[in-house]
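U., I forgot to send this yesterday:
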Amino acid sequence: MASPIPPSAVSENLRKHLDPKAPVPLRLMAAKGMVPMGPKDMVTVLTSLSFDDDDKVESAAIDSLMELPSRILDGALQERLHPLVLDHMARTLGEEKHLERIMLNQQTPDETFAYLADQIEGRLLGILLENQVRLLRHKQIVSKVLDNPSMSKAQIERLMDFAVRTGMEFEDLEAFEAAKIRIKGAPKDLEVEKQIREVVEASLPEDLLKPDTDEVIEDEEQEKAKKKTLLQLLHDMTIAQKVALANKGNKTVRMQLIKERNKLVCTAAIKNPGVNEAEAATIANNRSVSDDVIRIICNNREWTRSYQVKVALVNNPKTPIPTAMRFLNLLRKNDLKALARSKSIPSALARSAKSLLRKRER
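Result:
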């Protein structure tokens, strides 16, 4: 079975030992720990060779990995190991001190926490529950830890309170329903709300916060895959996460979130500081966006200075009629003609466009 660990995870001079086409003796030397290397490379090489197609290499690598001295393991587990190496080690090692280092390593995947969630106890369980960013980012961790027999009633209540405050949903779960009642009746705590906002923002995928690039994706399948990935990410987010992302996300993200039915999300997207006149015109042209979004555009003096924004708003049936009438007088003849013939705007607006045209043609 091919190793899931890419060769780039180790130093360049060691990659020859991981090459499946390399002679078996060369790979076997590394699997037996006979090649000089530092702790990080040692753990990565042995993990990778644990998936080697040759039985001798695979067996030697597994044995070497299990027999590594603690000083080497301790050093390696605190370094920037490849996430798949850390995941493999979490599923292989049993000692609490090693698992603790894995759980404290920022490179450890969320999936590893989900794997450990229903098995750990004591200090390790505390580390997991304190890592609220991961809990929110990967709901499966919460689902699994609720099945952990070591969870106390107090821990479950605190976890469910956090779930309610961050917008997570757990249907038919008595503890969750109790938390909703508890939170609803509790006095407002500004410090807690601030802390929750910080956790929500920290849980957002970094790629969705980066500015859009000018790179044009010509491959249609690649473009579809990128959009599908975005939609999947958004689908798994809570309302709180979507609002935070709408406030901070790049153009691609906010143009997707502007279509959300939830008022908090779509209005946060249109209020994103990155929205400019051109983007506002594109959004105003979209008749599926909510009335709230259109009203925000109408009330933005900077955007409505743009002729294209005015035209888009007048043509959008969701624009309040008084606002559309105000912009009508500023439109050019060709745009008035198109409005006068339009069947998708209020009839009063179409009649006013015709009347204005007649006055201008006199």
